[in-house]
Amino acid sequence: MTRSLLFPSLVLWFCLSTIPSRTLAESKLDTTHVSPFFDGHQLEGASIHGHEVHDKRKRGGRNSLLKRCDASKHSHGSKTPASAQYSGDSTSVFPAESKKWGLAWPNGDASYLANFARPKVRYLYTWSPYLPSTASEHGMEGIPMLWGWSQVDDFSRVVVQGYATRVLGMNEPNEPTQSFMSPQDGISLWKHYIDPLKTQGYYLISPACTNDQAGLDWMQSFVEGCTDCTIDAIAFHFYGTDPRAFVEHATILHETYNKPIWVTEFADQNFGGSGGQASMPDIYAFQSSVIEFVENTPWIEAAFPFGVMHDMQGVDEGNALLTEDEWPTSLAYNYFG
């Protein structure tokens, strides 16, 4: 069953303005979500293994992404862009100078990164400490990530003073199929590997939890227990079909922690097991509402739509941002300019 997400922007802002301030314990969101991505990078000392099926979603093993994430194995020539995949309204309505958008990029040093050097793209990350060698020449700020415990050796070796200016914390530490760890273990990892980077000039972005109650609870325990820690911004992932839930979740996190918000994965995707996936008109309507919210909310610092890849890892193909001939889809042009 297709759900229509078309509603006036006025309603969106009314919903935002009427969201009450609350504690995380009081926030019960009906937003079932598990991130579709995982560490696809072949790292020193990291075991390469598949991931379990969760919520009836396709979960590829790391091997399905190794070639795309290995920067040394990409050499693609320029091609003519594919035609737009949807014939509806796909005109970007926001100014090109707005640079809040980023690429969640699993494609290593692929030459088609140049095709995504769009007017509104500022950031790029790879679910690992490593960054494409050409990111800076395309005007993109690469942000290393400490995905989880499996990456600590590579992270501590690569992420040093001058390598970057921002760093991302762990990938869905509340989720068993991702970097899964207790808040206490997350605190230990943060204090040992991430917090010291503050004195080296880094801006520290929190672990990114899922947009459900488990994610809220994990983040609350982490922040409350991480005494004497520096956390400059709060990150989260969102998968759902209602943009009002996107707004609500971001607002809860901002009001709870009084920090800027980074949305480091999101898509119009139903992982709830009932109701079906959104139609393309629904996806464009969802996108329009999210863009309006991100562009007009000062405390949203960055947003990374999913996904710039051929294998969408169980996320509905309507959300794809990369065409078969390695150019942005019309959805991607809307986000990135």
TrEMBL record:
<dbReference type="GO" id="GO:0009277">
    <property type="term" value="C:fungal-type cell wall"/>
</dbReference>
<dbReference type="InterPro" id="IPR017853">
    <property type="entry name" value="GH"/>
</dbReference>
<dbReference type="InterPro" id="IPR024655">
    <property type="entry name" value="Asl1_glyco_hydro_catalytic"/>
</dbReference>
<dbReference type="GO" id="GO:0071966">
    <property type="term" value="P:fungal-type cell wall polysaccharide metabolic process"/>
</dbReference>
<keyword id="KW-0378">Hydrolase</keyword>
<protein>
    <submittedName>
        <fullName>Glycosyl hydrolase catalytic core-domain-containing protein</fullName>
    </submittedName>
</protein>
<dbReference type="InterPro" id="IPR053183">
    <property type="entry name" value="ASL1"/>
</dbReference>
<feature type="signal peptide">
    <location>
        <begin position="1"/>
        <end position="25"/>
    </location>
</feature>
<feature type="domain" description="Asl1-like glycosyl hydrolase catalytic">
    <location>
        <begin position="102"/>
        <end position="335"/>
    </location>
</feature>
<dbReference type="GO" id="GO:0016787">
    <property type="term" value="F:hydrolase activity"/>
</dbReference>
<feature type="compositionally biased region" description="Polar residues">
    <location>
        <begin position="78"/>
        <end position="90"/>
    </location>
</feature>
<feature type="region of interest" description="Disordered">
    <location>
        <begin position="69"/>
        <end position="90"/>
    </location>
</feature>
<keyword id="KW-0732">Signal</keyword>
<dbReference type="Pfam" id="PF11790">
    <property type="entry name" value="Glyco_hydro_cc"/>
</dbReference>
